[in-house]
Amino acid sequence: MITNARTQSTRRFRLGANYVPSDGWFYSWLDFSADAARRDLEDLASIGLDHVRVFPVWPWIQPNRALLRQRPIDDLLTLIDVAAEFDLGVAVDLLQGHLSSFDFLPSWILTWHQSSIFTDRTARDGISEYVRRISTEVATRPNVFAITLGNEVNNLWPANPTTPAASHQWATELLDVVRAAAPDALHLHSVFDDAWYAPDHPFHPAEAVELGDLTTVHSWVFNGTSRIDGPLGPATTSHADYLLELAASSAPDANRPVWLQEVGVPRPDVPAEQAGEFVARTLATVAGNPALWGVTWWASHDIDRRLTDFPDREYDLGLFTVDHRPKPAALALAEFARDTAAHAAARVRPALVAPINPLREPTRRAEIAPGSAFHQEWVKARQTEPTAIVTPDRATDEGYLAARGLGPLR
User: Fold this and answer.
1) At the top level of its lineage, which domain of life is listed (predicted)?
2) What is the CATH number of the domain that holds 186?
3) CB-side neighbour CA atoms (13 Å) of 57
4) Most buried pick, 183, 346, 352, 384, via CB within 10 A?
5) Using CA atoms, how far apart are residues 213 and 145, in angstroms rounded to an integer?
6) Number of domains the chain contains
7) Are the C-beta atoms of residues 367 and 378 closer than 8 Å to each other?
């Protein structure tokens, strides 16, 4: 039976998938079918997953700032109920926002209304009403364990100018709205890895590790990591663990959990014939990290190639094909789900001292980006044994080092 959201949120480890509908991608929200969703979620339950992350499309629910449509909200609630049939928990993302390399924004912030969703007060008030309504509605379902503001909202900033202070305040305000509307769910903020690696990016690591109930990270090796040592090289297969360590080492709270909320096997960076091995090695690398709260694979299903204009790598990221056949990635994930002993965390690990604390010196983020001297040093150390990261300002803090279970510093 599904337990309540608070019980679910405190489980030691979760394993799930980001739900991409097999029939019609997210356009399927326009004519939602519970039976089609049921067939998709049956696939995921069959390989031992315990949750899905789902993505209602913002402008289709709030096409006008003053109009929140009940029908798509009811469709979302139906999807959540279908998930419960398979004992699947549900994490709901609110502002889509950005999906599979497309941006979705309502007309009331475009054309002659053009404004930044992060800085314009009228736009922010409209978003707040959307966040309040959806959070209130989904909180009625006991299998909803988390609500994230949106999927990689920092992808929207080029068309929505912002500053670090404004984006931080935007997320803070909206998380307060979620917390009031859905007090029993985890309240989360999601950014992609430019927030960790790009020196001039207006979203900073502080947003990831200071806001929300836990930190989320998204690991994609097409960011240049796969070019360091190839599809199955140690830099490529340890990138997810590297992000986990950057997040754990940067967090003010030494015990703050980290959710690997997105990780996938993109082509051509990882050829199809090496996909299963990439999944197995990536999961084996992160499994012993004591900060790891859970893993959610991107994505549940492929995108039908009859749909046009997606970047080529987006079509084949699914665990299952559009006709519900499990792919090597699904089989590797299923094996990991069965091997619960693999999730035991190491007690004491050596740690490598980073050149910076990215919270304090975000303009130096390039010094910890993939391919940097520090990253290469960490990858080399990681090949011998699991290696933590500690920021220089905490390298002599014995209480902190003990709290994270860190041994000798390098």
Assistant:
1) Bacteria
2) 3.20.20.80
3) 20
4) 352
5) 12
6) 1
7) no
